[in-house]
């Protein structure tokens, strides 16, 4: 997007583009200048449009917090508000340090899913996720299709289905992912994660159909948490797991043995560029 004065009222507003293991986001520092019209669904959609906007899976506003060091408000690319996004939180960790809002050794990010502790470890973002809830090893009323071994449900900040398959590369993700995402047994729908052993033997591979994006995304942080929890419940993996996303980048999930304590999620949080809005159209 060019840096010229457009007709829209937000022209000239500074933004940041960040990438988290293939998930990409547009960030605004809204601590002093509120989001305003930028948070409207139609504007979110224009910002995230790949061909005519900046292009992103979602938009994040960094806001003042009364319970943490900074608050993140996350919106999917369709303009809907989401309670949590793992990779957006990892990116928030990176940007909050870059902007000097926090100290890298440890701080608290307020989210719609509750406060999350964050830090940089060897310059890599790491966050303490909420405990996985409503872990159901076999989702009731959802039948596995050909090539699917099991389908489970987990609430990892947002709802997820996890589908165990032999090879995620063979899945017709757009068709099967969309069908499961809108399964009538799911009141609010769900992200759908297909998971299989990595051919290299270095962990697990995951592909995600993401609710609110309505298509495949190259990574999903909360999806990686859901997959790790489900693989452990199925006794297919240890409590900690390396999940290789569709981008080829890995997310590391470590789950403590203590009940009710959430896992840690570590992965990429990379600032790609910063710029100023022009004409959103």
Automatic annotation (TrEMBL):
Which top class of enzyme applies to this chain? isomerase
Question: Its GO biological process terms?
Answer: lysine biosynthetic process via diaminopimelate
Location in or out of the cell: Cytoplasm
Cross-referenced InterPro entries: DAP_epimerase_DapF (IPR001653)
| Gene Ontology CC: one annotated term | cytosol
Tell me the name of the encoding gene.
dapF
Q: Catalysed reaction(s)?
A: (2S,6S)-2,6-diaminopimelate = meso-2,6-diaminopimelate
Q: What is its EC number?
A: 5.1.1.7
Residues the UniProt record annotates as site (Could be important to modulate the pK values of the two catalytic cysteine residues): 160, 210
Tell me, in a sentence or two, what this protein's role is. Answer: Catalyzes the stereoinversion of LL-2,6-diaminopimelate (L,L-DAP) to meso-diaminopimelate (meso-DAP), a precursor of L-lysine and an essential component of the bacterial peptidoglycan.
Q: Which organism is it from?
A: Roseisolibacter agri
Active-site residues, Swiss-Prot/TrEMBL: 85, 220
The answer to whether the entry has keyword Isomerase is yes
Extract the PANTHER family matched here.
Answer: DIAMINOPIMELATE EPIMERASE, DIAMINOPIMELATE EPIMERASE, CHLOROPLASTIC
- Its family? Belongs to the diaminopimelate epimerase family.
Single GO molecular function: diaminopimelate epimerase activity
In which domain of life is the source organism classified? Bacteria
Gene3D superfamilies attached to this UniProt entry = Diaminopimelate Epimerase, Chain A, domain 1
Chief location: cytoplasm
Organismal lineage: Bacteria, Pseudomonadati, Gemmatimonadota, Gemmatimonadia, Gemmatimonadales
Protein name in UniProt: Diaminopimelate epimerase
Give binding positions for substrate: 23, 76, 86-87, 191, 210-211, 221-222
Isomerase among the record's keywords? yes
Which is a Pfam family this sequence falls into? DAP_epimerase
Q: Which NCBIfam families match?
A: DapF
Q: In which pathway does it act?
A: Amino-acid biosynthesis; L-lysine biosynthesis via DAP pathway; DL-2,6-diaminopimelate from LL-2,6-diaminopimelate: step 1/1
Its quaternary structure?
Answer: Homodimer.
């Amino acid at each position: 997007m060019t840096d010229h004065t457009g007709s829209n009222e937000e022209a000239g507003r500074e933004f940041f583009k960040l990438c988290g293991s293939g998930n990409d986001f547009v960030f605004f520092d809204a601590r002093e200048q509120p989001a305003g019209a930028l948070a409207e669904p139609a504007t979110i959609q224009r910002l995230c449009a790949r061909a005519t906007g900046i292009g992103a899976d979602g938009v994040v506003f960094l806001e003042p917090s009364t319970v943490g060091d900074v608050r993140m408000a996350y919106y999917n690319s369709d303009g809907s508000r989401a309670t949590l996004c793992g990779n957006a939180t990892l990116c928030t960790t990176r940007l909050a340090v870059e902007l000097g809002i926090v100290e890298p050794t440890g701080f608290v990010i307020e989210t719609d899913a509750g406060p999350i502790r964050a830090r940089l470890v060897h310059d890599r973002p790491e966050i303490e996720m909420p405990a996985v809830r409503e872990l159901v090893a076999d989702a009731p009323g959802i039948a596995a299709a050909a090539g699917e071994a099991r389908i489970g449900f987990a609430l990892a900040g947002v709802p997820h289905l996890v589908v165990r398959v032999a090879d995620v590369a063979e899945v017709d993700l757009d068709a099967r992912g969309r069908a499961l995402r809108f399964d009538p047994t799911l009141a609010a729908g769900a992200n759908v994660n297909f998971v299989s052993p990595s051919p290299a033997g270095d962990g697990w591979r995951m592909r995600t159909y993401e609710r609110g994006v309505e298509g495949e995304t190259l990574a999903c942080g909360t999806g990686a948490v859901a997959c790790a929890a489900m693989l452990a419940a199925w006794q297919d993996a240890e409590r900690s797991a390396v999940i290789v996303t569709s981008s080829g980048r890995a997310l590391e999930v470590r789950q403590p043995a203590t009940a009710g304590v959430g896992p840690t999620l570590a992965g990429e949080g990379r600032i790609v560029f910063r710029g100023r809005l022009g004409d959103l159209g």
